[in-house]
Structures are given as structure tokens and as C-alpha cells.
Amino acid sequence: MDNIVSWSAEDEAIIATNTDATECKRCAVELGYWKDDYIPYFIRHVDRKAPEINRGYYARVRAMEMFIHQFIERCGTKCQIINLGCGFDTLFWRLKDSTQAVGNFIELDFPAVTSKKCHIIKRNKQLLEKISNEDGEVMIREGDLHSDGYHLVGCDLRCLGEVRRKLEAAGAGEGAGAPPTLVLAECVLVYLRPEAADALLRHLAAAFPRSALLVYEQCNLGDKFGEVMVRNLSARGVALAGAAGPPAAQAARLRALGFDAARCWDMHAVWRALPDDDRARVEALEMLDERELLLQLNSHYALAVATRSDIFADMDLNA
Fold first, then answer.
1. Per the annotation, does 156 bind a ligand?
2. Exposed, middle or buried, 120 (CB in 10 Å: 0-12/13-18/19+)?
3. What is the per-residue pLDDT across 79-118, written as a single tens digit (0 to 9) for each?
4. CATH label, 26-312, candidates 3.40.190.150, 3.40.50.10380, 3.50.70.10, 3.40.50.150
5. Is 274 assigned a ligand-binding role in the annotation?
6. What is the pTM of this model?
7. What pLDDT score was predicted for residue 135?
8. Is 182 among the annotated ligand-binding positions?
């Protein structure tokens, strides 16, 4: 039985990073980096961010979308997405507006985050109507939301038993009967202690034999630039308990935890792999004076892709 974990000051500081990320995304959306009609419901007003921040968020969102589309192309829409540490992410609604809405979409985060997200969804018809359908109903109780094909649940990702119970309640299934599953983990595992993150990843690899995992988080924090990043977060009460090493080490870790294959790139490599016309359009949006700063930022974030099942083995930056 898992121990009940009380929320600490550090937990509250981690929860606050969701607001920061949402503000950065809205700023980039307002400047035309990508289209997102739903993010204004989650954050009302933002100050303008530095061009390198906007461009970094664009690369993150664009790369995640590329791999999500690759996943759906390989297995069709009769699959599920599990979004760990979802925050105020709007991916569910954006997929609903495309031809790539999936059969089941499950989001997990701290109850403080999911409760607020539930409240925002409930009071905005444009969000709520995409969740409900003619025959379905939306059930909101104690900060969790369940509907036909979308589930938003609060839990502590450090407590594996709780995660398993929440996934079961959301209809995720396990083993051979589980549908093809894509797990997203953007800037979440880095906040877990290594033993908790490893236990979670090991379970996911075992539970979903037809799956892919996308992990986006900080890396290479051992140099001076990384030390400044760590110090700045520490000043806000956030410790990177699970800070990852270089991309090659991240890929090796995922393979050791039960995934059949894993690749990892720093975000500079990801940026260079984006289509030329995408990069040209984005580079024309804002003047970038601090090119060296963008390069440093990109070398301290990484995107990893780990897979189970041969159907996903060829997911790649250039696929």
C-alpha cells in the first residue's frame, strides 16, 4: 500500500511551473509561432517573452506533434494517449479539431492542477462541448473528470499504486488487451526522485506492450550553464531530483527499464531536423540577437523516444 504523500512547499513550487509554461505557450501563440485556439481559456494575460524562449517552446511543441502524428499514423486513432504531468496542456482539444482524435485520452497531474483545469473546462462551453457527445455525460467529482474518451485525474506520480488505480478508472487497460498507447512526459520525470521515476517507467513499459513514450526535459546540467539553470530553479523552491544526463545516457536508461528501443536528441538536433520551411517561417517572426543563448538553451533540453513493439520501432526525427 502506498504511503499518503502530503504536499510540500517544493510540490507547490513544481505546481507553479505549470503557470510559467502556459504563459510561455500563450505568448508564442499570440506571436504566431503556432495555432492554439484553446490556450486563452487557461491563461488570460501574459507579458512578452524573450525570442529564444518563444523559439524554444515552438521547437518543443512542433517536435512533440511530429511524433504524436507518427504514432497515430502507425496504429490509427483506435489508440490512447496518457499525458503525465499534463498541466494546462490543450493537446486533447487540438487533436479533436483534426482528423487524429484518439479513442481514449487520459491526463494526470497533481490534484491542485487537475481541479483547476476541471473548473476551467466546466465553465467554458468551447472546452466542455469537445469532451461530451450526444450520448455521453461528463462526470466531475473531487477534482477528477471522466467522460467518454477523455479523463482528467489528480494523483501523485510518485505513488505507483495510485497511478495504477487512476489509470484503471480511466479505462487504460493493461497487458495484451490494452490498446496502442502513447505516453507523454514533458518536464515531469525530472521532478521525481530517480527511484520513483524508474518504478513508473518500468511499470509503463511492462503494462503497455504496444506503446511509445515521449520524454522532454532538461539535460546536461553539469556544466556552468546547467548550474545556473539549477540554481535559478532552486531559488524558486524547485529541485531537479531526477535531473538527467546526456541524451545517450537517457536512451540507455529507458532501454534498461524495459523499452525495446530508445533514442534521444538535444533540442539543437531537433531544431535542425525540423522542415526547412518551418524554421524559415519561425525565424522571420522575431529578431534573435542572442543566438548563442538559444544554442545553449537547446543543448540543455532533450527529447527522448522509447518504444515497445516493432510497429513503433522506426519512429524518428526524420521519419
1. yes
2. middle
3. 999 999 999 999 999 999 998 889 999 999 999 999 999 9
4. 3.40.50.150
5. no
6. 0.95
7. 63
8. no
